[in-house]
Design a protein that fits this description.
This protein is α/β, with parallel strands linked by helices and 421 residues long. It folds into two domains: 16-37 and 311-419, Aspartate Aminotransferase, domain 1 (Alpha-Beta Complex), CATH 3.90.1150.10; 54-308, Type I PLP-dependent aspartate aminotransferase-like (Major domain) (Aspartate Aminotransferase, domain 2), CATH 3.40.640.10. The chain has helices at 16-20, 48-60, 71-91, 105-117, 139-148, 194-203, 223-226, 251-256, 293-309, 311-330, 358-367, 380-386, 402-420, and strands at 36-37, 99-102, 126-130, 151-155, 176-182, 208-211, 230-234, 245-249, 267-269, 278-279, 335-338, 348-353, 370-371, 373-375, 391-395. Strands 2-8-7-6-5-3-4 form a seven-stranded mixed beta sheet, with helices on both faces. The longest helix is centred in the N-terminal third of the chain and has 21 residues, at 71-91. The N and C termini lie far apart (57 Å). The structure holds 4'-deoxy-4'-aminopyridoxal-5'-phosphate.
Length: 421
Amino acid sequence: MSLAVQPIDDSETINPEAVRRDFPIFSGSTQPRRFHYLDHAATTPKPSAVINSISDCYAQCYAPIHRGLYPMAEQATSNYEHARRTLQHFIGAASPDELVFTRSATEAINMVASGWLKPRLERGDVVWVSRMEHHSNYLPWQLVCQEQQAQLRFIELTEDGQLDLDGTPELFAERTKFIAITHVSNVLGTENPVATLCTTAREYGIPVLVDAAQSVSHIELDVAEMCCDFLAFSAHKMFGPTGIGLLYGRQERLAEMAPLQVGGGMVDSVGDGMEESRWAAIPARFEAGSPDMPGAVGFAAAADYLSSLGHERVHRHIVSLTRLAAQRLMRIDGIRLLPHAGLPASGIVSFTHHNMHPHDMAQIAGEAGVAIRAGHHCAQPLLRRLGLTATARASFSVYNDESDIDALIDAIISAQRVFCE
Ligand code: PMP
């Protein structure tokens, strides 16, 4: 396992076919025909490098971490902490102690809402989120505001799906206690100017949490440059295992945060009865219970894998493919893209059809071997504002190519034949 990974080759462009071969789900007997997976915003397939790193943990070095004194337990602990350092470098954090392993992005956000914000939030204070948040970066703040009788307010969107920062002059007002914002929208694909927002917020002393669930797979993250106080993402959307995520918190912020869960592993000394207990040092304080060592190792392997592909190249490939898909979808009669103007800036394109329900489009596409998503995408406040209850969404990754777009377009045209003729 290495901390600094060089790109596998120097060429400017990705070879999707070669990358596809790294993913066993696309080969072998499980797939009778070409499987056009276009649901990466929901979750990503796993490359052999990740699968093998996890199975190696179970087959070769599996023992309880942070406890056992025998060599295999020490090795397992070292692998877990090495994974933390790999991820530290992956996001440009100053110290491994700024990284807390969680079950998911959702858990990471809940930890901050309950453990950092709640004890500081007073009646009448304001917390801002954007209109485009996923429920996981919305409900934790809504709950804490309800509990503390604070206000939850939206940064609304412009017609073309960008944050309407000009229309939100009160964002940095005195009562603002916190801002939670997604880096990339899981519905619109909009990339938000998080570095600008976080830098200004810091000048006003307002902490910001960035939800990087949708950006981590194709945008190089640098928490120092971004100037965020907290950052959350899950491994499963960046080729890593399901069931593990990460909370980054600036050291001083984590020091102020109360643990969400208590139990084994997060405590130094436990008091008798009502006597106070003393929490362990950070980050162990926030990792109660037996940590998911194989998950952390697989998470780090995914980060190494992405670094080996090169973020710039991955991003360029995904954006150009998504733009092409958007242009071709637009040419189909009855299709409307979200947002209303502009081409996608990430790997996500959402669309509706004036005569077909998104679920019908997704079902017909699925039968044709094209996996897209339909529904509200856990973004009901956004869909409500757009006057919609559901959209269809195609989301691209590094091994997709034009044949996946052809299959998508053919599937939508077939659906049109079924439902519109
Ligand atoms: N934020 C965004 C923008 C997401 O797209 C998702 C997952 N769809 C989440 C948060 C939550 O991620 P997880 O379910 O892995 O906790």
